[in-house]
Amino acid sequence: MLSIFSKKYFVKDLLEGFVDIHNHILPGIDDGAKNTEESLILIKRLMDLGIRQFIPTPHIMHDFYPNTFETIGDSYQELLEAIPRKMQRNISINPAAEYMLDDHFDVLLETENLYPLRGKYILVEMSYFQAPLNFEDIIFKLKTKGYTPILAHPERYSFYHNKFEYYKTLKKLGCLFQLNLLSLGDHYGKSVEKTAIDLIQEGLIDFVGSDVHNENHIKKITELYVNESCINKLKKIIETTNNTFTVI
Question: How far is it, in rounded angstroms, from Cα 207 to Cα 77?
Answer without folding.
Answer: 27
